[in-house]
Amino acid sequence: MQKAIYKYIASLLKYWRKGEKRMIRLVVSDIDGTLIHTTDGPVPAAVFEQISRLRAKGIIFAPASGRQYRSLRRLFAPLAGELHYICENGAVVFGPGSPGAVLSKVVMEHGEAMALARKIVETPDCELFMSGTNTSYLCPKGPEIVTLMRDRVRNNVVLLERPEDVPEAVVKVSAYRPGAAETLIPVLTPHFGEVFNAAIAGDGWLDFTLADKGLGLRRLCAALGIDTQDVMAFGDNYNDLPMLAAAGHPYIMSTASPELLPLVENKCRNVAEVLAAL
Q1: Out of 28, 61, 189, 196, which residue is the most buried by the measure of CB atoms under 10 Å away?
Q2: CA distance 247 to 129
Q3: What order of strands is seen across the sheet that includes strand 85-87?
Q4: pLDDT in tens, 164-214
Q5: Which H, E and C letters describe the chain, residue by residue?
Q6: What phi and psi, each to the nearest 5 degrees, are found at residue 128?
Q7: Calpha distance 238→226 (Å, rounded)
Q8: Does 40 have pLDDT greater than 80?
Q9: Residue 157 and residue 128: Cα distance in Å, rounded?
Q10: What's the whole-model pTM score?
Q11: What values do phi and psi take at 271, rounded to 5?
Q12: Please, how many CA atoms are within 13 Å of residue 164, restricted to the half-sphere of its CB?
């Protein structure tokens, strides 16, 4: 199932329009592995310089990440209230402001989400992570996941005794097995990969949503009145492929997995350097 999805996305990327001069009106970028390379690393100063310069030219910038809204605002603190945000792999989109308004939200069917959550809890060496609009819900088996999400990523975190205690609609359910997300695919996708979109989202994470970053981008473009062909997008991982397929000007990081590199013509090592040419 996963390979079939990636082949379909690859076919979309192959037919990306070439030779058509378009004005870039929106830049969207993945965070982990694209703008930064450590979980708690800062966004480079050069990126902030380019975001401010582009904003003066009328070009909007939006982080696009599996992270929650609070975590993204912290990363972009100097400009936090000026940006749009594609959060939770496209499941929640926020506008500018402090806080910004929710422009789009895609909720998972509750019964299937809880069934998936229970399956993750039952899976050895695997932690459950559930996302609400701006809160992370954990049923931790050990302290490591709490330290990671609350103290390093600095999400809003609430600890639960059981998945069914989640007090709001769920937009994303994730399984975390450090360094071994691929090993969770045969365990969790035979059923749940047919119900939800499943994607590897960095070291150890397998995410399930009814959205993806491509949908989040299209919803943001609709809210802004921008054609997706006027979007420049940057990414490096499987969960970025729908976004890269939707954008008229996609770039993949040259440090991405070798099996992803052939899917996108434009490669780069430094996002700020590409933005400097706009």
Answers
A1: 28
A2: 29
A3: 85-87, 92-97, 100-105
A4: 999 999 999 999 999 999 999 999 999 999 999 998 887 799 999 999 999
A5: CHHHHHHHHHHHHHCCCCCCCCCCCEEEECCECCCECCCCCCCCHHHHHHHHHHHHCCCEEEEECCCCHHHHHHHCHHHHHHCCEEEHHHCEEEEEECCEEEEEECCCCHHHHHHHHHHHHHCCCCEEEEECCCCEEECCCCCHHHHHHHHHCCCCEEECCCHHHCCCCCCEEEEECCCCHHHHHHHHHHHHHHHCEEEECCCCEEEEECCCHHHHHHHHHHHHCCCHHHEEEEECCHHHHHHHHHCCEEEEECCCCCCCHHHCCCEECCHHHHHCCC
A6: -95, 140
A7: 25
A8: no
A9: 13
A10: 0.90
A11: -65, -40
A12: 3
Cross-strand pairs, 253: 268
Which tokens in the block code for residue 29? 């970028």
* CA dist 217 → 53, 153, 229 (Å): 22, 23, 11
249-278 b/e with 16+ CB inside 10 Å = b? bbbbbeebeeebeebbeeebeebbebbeee
CA distances from 54 to 62, 66, 204, 266 (A): 12, 24, 34, 20
Question: For the packed helices 2-14 and 185-195, what is the interaxial angle rounded to 10 degrees?
Answer: 60
Cis peptide bond N-terminal to 124, omega within 30: no
Closest by alpha carbon to 239, among 211, 209, 267, 201? 201
